[in-house]
Amino acid sequence: RAVEVDLRQALERDEFELHYQPIVDTATRRIRSFEALIRWRHHERGLISPDAFIPLAEEIGLIAPIGAWVLREACARAAQWPEPIGVSVNISPVQFAGRKLLETVEMALVMSGLAPERLEIEITETAVLQNSDTTLGVLRDLKKLGLRISMDDFGAGYSSLSSLQSFPFDKVKIDRAFTRGLEQSRKSDAIITAVTNLCSGLDMCATAEGVETESQFEALRRRGCQEAQGYLFGRPCMAEEVPALIAQLG
Ligand code: G
Ligand code: G
Ligand code: MN
Ligand code: NA
């Protein structure tokens, strides 16, 4: 497969880049952090989205080196932003299988000088369900470094309340399907309200994904959802554009 050959060379060719999407505090509308989202700038095909190459990278054993690059790059970038603005990084379930993740995260923090409290890692339910004992051990070790852990895409897959109970999450990111339905469907509204209340009872932060309109934002704020992320505040943008966004929404 040509794409496989290219993917194996992409790191050496320096073809990956991180885009950053702001996450705001619903009470103040100010930026709290940015989510780092990888893209592959292919020498012939242009910008390729992660959905089109992350599964392949997982399959052919490249997710560890790519994931390490993501962590180093995101931490180095965030160290240049004004405090306390943080960065969140998506971690593949495959990265949890190896024992190297802890070392990789530690190295990224040390090399960048980023305060651990400013780093967040996002994992999905899949990571929690596969090898849950190993994952739990790694998550506890990561938390000892001082960073925070989010459950990504909550409600989209087989999210279970027991994983909120058993795993040391600091934050729940509510899948954008519920935000989309917020104003049309009583069910989505009830789910957002319930998850937000649940988070508050568990001392976890609730972040709504996919916020595209002012009225969605207002509804989320009134229901006590603490953070919002979505096109209303900005699409994922290049690192060079981040300072201007901070100036505007910081
Ligand atoms: O930005 P975009 O909507 O194209 O992202 C699509 C998916 O790719 C999202 O589910 C996101 O979590 C995932 N993704 C983005 N960046 C990374 C990354 O650096 N590592 C991993 N493992 N997944 C990522
Ligand atoms: O799975 P994860 O939540 O990590 O995926 C994040 C992806 O969601 C990003 O790739 C981004 O492009 C996409 N996204 C972010 N904000 C919005 C939004 O407001 N609407 C839609 N439709 N997608 C969004
Ligand atoms: Mn994410
Ligand atoms: Na998500």
Automatic annotation (TrEMBL):
It comes from the Bacteria. Residues 1-250 form the EAL domain. One of its GO terms (molecular function) is catalytic activity. This is Diguanylate cyclase/phosphodiesterase with PAS/PAC sensor(S). It comes from Rhodoblastus acidophilus (Rhodopseudomonas acidophila). The lineage of its organism: Bacteria, Pseudomonadati, Pseudomonadota, Alphaproteobacteria, Hyphomicrobiales. The chain holds residues 585 to 834 of 844 of the full protein.
